[in-house]
Amino acid sequence: MNDFALLKLMTLGPSAAGEIKMASRGKTETSKLKQNLEEQLDRLMQQLQDLEECREELDADEYEETKKETLEQLSEFNDSLKKIMSGNMTLVDELSGMQLAIQAAISQAFKTPEVIRLFAKKQPGQLRTRLAEMDRDLMVGKLERGLYTQQKVEILTALRKLGEKLTADDEAFLSANAGAILSQFEKVSTDLGSGDKVLALASFEVEKTKK
């Protein structure tokens, strides 16, 4: 703390100084909590990514069972997140993007772990970088058209949810290629505050995977 800041703190008196210290401590705790939650989400996204990479080595039942278990863990994580955020507007602001990204994963609206991870961490710049890399990979034949379309739709939806402006071409691409589940996800999550509706959709999709 510099001399000016220290002098200002002294002139505020013990009560105000205490409030500033409490606010600072609260901010530090929020930062640590967010970091811990991001680490938990990274672990779950890594599980999904590893599962997709090993899909050819697993039989269909084993793959579905493992994926269902991971989605159930995500659902439990989402429930915990909702309780943590309850009544705390600072945490709602900090973690709402993470909650929406998790719900997109649970509902199977998003299927690409890395896109979900970047969406949760509110990283529009990295999402755009990934999209540019995908464009190049498609042109040189390194990325199959169907996978490109799926991931591009996910990225554009994430960017829109993060408040990023899309080009007219991107909007047209999204309208033409969004599937039924993604369209429903888009409809019930028109803003970050509509978590209950999105959670209802997510719960419905999880129940469908159990049948």
Automatic annotation (TrEMBL):
Coiled-coil positions: 27-80
Keyword set, alphabetical order: Coiled coil
Pfam entry (one): ICAT
Beta-catenin-interacting ICAT domain sequence ranges: 134-208
Gene3D superfamilies: Beta-catenin-interacting ICAT (1.10.10.490)
Signal peptide: none
Annotated GO biological process: negative regulation of Wnt signaling pathway
Record GO terms (molecular function): beta-catenin binding
InterPro entries on file: ICAT_dom (IPR009428), ICAT_sf (IPR036911)
Self-association and partners: Does not interact with CTNNB1.
Family recorded in the similarity comment: Belongs to the CTNNBIP1 family.
Protein's name according to its UniProt entry: Protein LZIC
The species this protein was found in: Nyctereutes procyonoides (Raccoon dog)
Source organism phylogeny: Eukaryota, Metazoa, Chordata, Craniata, Vertebrata
